[in-house]
Amino acid sequence: MTAALVDRVRHRLAGTDIELTAAVVADAVRSEAGGVLADSDVLEALRVLRQEFSGTGPLDPLLADPGTTDVLVTAPDQVWVDGGAGLRRTTVTFPDEDAVRRLAQRLAVAAGRRLDDASPCVDGWLPGSGVRLHAVLPPIAERTCLSLRVLRPATHDLEALQRLGTFDDDIGLALRSIVRKRLAFLVIGGTGSGKTSLLSALLGCVPATERIVCVEDASELSPGHPQFVRLTARPANVEGAGEVTARELVREALRMRPDRIVVGEVRGAEVRELLTSLNTGHEGGAGTLHANSPAEVPARLEALGALGGLAPHALHSQVAAALRIVLHMRRDNGVRYLNEIGAFERTGDGLVVRPVWTRAKGWHDKGLLC
């Protein structure tokens, strides 16, 4: 079966409004072939064209692997996957650059976005899959670049994380104490370090009599809790309408009689509303934040506060009154673990996070938590 035949069938089917069943595709293949085809040729055509019109094409098997966190396409013959132990090159390939571009554009449409020469970059969520899409077209990139991030629900409880070596028995008791004492906290770390897993496990320790309202960009948190309510942000559609931001949802959460308010990932102006909520009686709230170390957290919060119109001194006062604890997660050689526990402290120069416990040196101030 030639590439020209597949191309003719592709164009034939692209102009139809009927459902693309296997029978429809097979009839199109035979019609465009202009003669009798072997069953093996028809099956091969079905396989190729199914990849063109459904799912994520040849990337489907990679995304179906439960260990996959990222799938990256940097060229037709360069498809990489990260399963938590670092990137590795796969044997998956595309026929040519046009095939990568067609897939990227089809996925953009599925995400309700636009990707073409006039709008060569796209960021969105594939519906019903928990997969985040990012794509860039030439000439912004040398070749079409496609990045798919798999966000899997965080379902581990504290006992499971402890068995995995994330922390020991002593720290497990300290983490439960944080929840019991209603100390507001942030879980920080780099991408894939286990921030969401730890936050979800801690929320599972919240008493069943308390109501948790959570704001997320995508549905990642799945704590074992009977009163967990999720609000999910929504991007604008291709017309630029219909956006619902995390900042708006934090305000909505305040009207839903929450005992604890959680922001799955603090990444923008919503930090202002979160801090306000924590300072108005909603103790024990939480969130995650991208930061490489506890020492970087004050500066990171200052940058986000600026997006919400908070001056540094105002943010320092809000944080010092609202947030108490920082939990730092790390990933080394595919192993995720709790590296440090810190506490916010107001100083004459602003705000710092002082160590309470570190994996390397143990306790600095055990009395704060135990």
From TrEMBL:
Annotated family: Belongs to the GSP E family.
Entry GO MF terms: ATP hydrolysis activity
Transmembrane domains' residue ranges: none
InterPro entries found in the cross-reference section: P-loop_NTPase (IPR027417), T2SS/T4SS_dom (IPR001482), T4SS_GSP_E_ATPase (IPR050921), TadA-like_ATPase (IPR022399)
Pfam families: T2SSE
Gene3D superfamilies listed in its UniProt record: 3.30.450.380, P-loop containing nucleotide triphosphate hydrolases (3.40.50.300)
UniProt cross-references to SUPFAM superfamilies, sorted A to Z: P-loop containing nucleoside triphosphate hydrolases
Bacterial type II secretion system protein E domain sequence ranges: 55-327
Record's protein name: Pilus assembly protein CpaF
